[in-house]
Each structure stands twice: as structure tokens, then as C-alpha cells.
Amino acid sequence: MNDTDGIKDKVREAGFTCLLCGACCSGADNEVMVSPPEIEVLAEATGMSMDEIVEPYPEWIRQDGFTFTFGWVLQRGEDGNCIFLKNNRCRVYRSRPHICRTYPFMLDGEDLIISECPGCETCGTTNDAGQITEDLLRRRDAENTELEKTEKQYQKHSIITGSTIVFDSSGAHEYSIPPKKS
Ligand code: SF4
Ligand code: SF4
Predict the structure, then answer these.
(1) Is 99 inside any structural domain?
(2) Residue 178 falls within a domain, yes or no?
């Protein structure tokens, strides 16, 4: 059995069916990290600007007079829900990011991690285990590429004292709104 088959078997055994409860699209703990290519896809699908779609990943690092973070997360409305959630449905379903496509699953190397989700163990076998596995492998590749590129951007840019920067795979972005939390 190759690694892909092993992952697919574990996904199948999770007995997952999405109950469309919307729990993974709401709540402060469910931050959805998105890469620059994913932001572009969402911007194209919605006509929204990047500033309307994302905000910086909220774990700010303060060091030697400057403040920075890595990457972006989808914005939430005042109700705490993802801005794309409406009546428990995703308004950008076809363009949704990797994390959303693969929830509640993720890969840590070859290990399958399963997050809390009421849709697990609701049926004998996960129906679309093959598709979910493909999405998981695509997500892992994309995340590894993003990480590698973001590290290069971090190493190559010097940070100006007093500035607030978001590093991502496309560069170092000065951010004008003061960070809310660290
Ligand atoms: S993936 Fe899980 S938490 Fe998210 S909507 Fe489906 S059942 Fe609910
Ligand atoms: S983009 Fe769609 S699936 Fe992802 S968190 Fe928002 S509403 Fe949920």
C-alpha cells in the first residue's frame, strides 16, 4: 500500500459526512489561513479587494522595535462568522481555500489529523474519500511551497524600525492598521 492509499483509507474510516452545520466557518478559534494565490482566486470570484477579504494572521511578533506576522486569514463579521458564510452556506464554495476544502482533515507529513467536527463518525465510510485525499495532498504541497517562499521573503527583507509588516510568499507588506492582539 502506498502513502496515498493509506491516507485515503484513514479518511474513509473517519465516516465523515458534512452536516452543513457551519461550525467550522464560525468562532474565533477557526482562523482560515489563506495564501496570496488563494486570495487572488477569491478576489476574482467576488470582485472584492484584498483588504476586504483578509486581515493579517493575528499572532504578531514584536522584536527590536518592529512588529511582524506571517500570512493572512479570512476576515470575520461582527457575528464572528467568516464573511463568506450566509445561512450556513459558503458563498464562495467553488473558490473556497484549501483549508475549507479539506476540513476536518489535514496532513502532518503522512499523518492524518482530524479536527473536531460533528460530521465525523456519522456514517460507515466517508463517501468522497478519494477526492478529499487528492485535496489534502494538493493542500500539503501548496502549504509547503508557501512556507518555503515566505521564509525566503523574511530572510531577504530588512525591516524598518517602527514598521508593521506582514510577510507572505509574495513579499513583505507594510500594514497600516495597528495589530489588535499578539
Ligand atoms: S465540515 Fe464539520 S464542522 Fe464544518 S460544516 Fe461540515 S459538519 Fe459542520
Ligand atoms: S470560505 Fe466558505 S467554507 Fe471557508 S470558512 Fe468561509 S464560509 Fe466557510
Answers:
(1) yes
(2) no
User: How many domains is the chain built from?
Assistant: 1
Question: What domain range includes position 23?
Answer: 3-170
* Residue 88, in any domain of the structure: yes
| Residue to substitute in 76, 90, 139 for testing ligand 2 pocket (most ligand atoms within 8 angstroms of CB) | 90
- HEC readout, 67-103: EEEECEEECECCCCEECCEECCEECCHHHCCHHHHHC
Percent of the chain scoring above 90 in pLDDT? 78
Which pLDDT tens digit goes with each residue over 11-42? 999 999 999 999 999 987 789 999 999 999 99
Rounded CA gap, 107 and 143, in Å? 10
Closest among 167, 176, 169, 174 to 57, alpha carbons compared: 167
**Distances in Å between the alpha carbon of 74 and those of 24, 36, 54, 87?**
13, 12, 4, 18
Structural domain includes residue 176: no
Which helix (H) or strand (E) segment is 48 a member of? none
Q: What residues line ligand 1, using a CB cutoff of 6 Å?
A: 18-24, 103-104, 117-119
pLDDT tens sequence across 116-134: 999 999 999 998 999 999 9
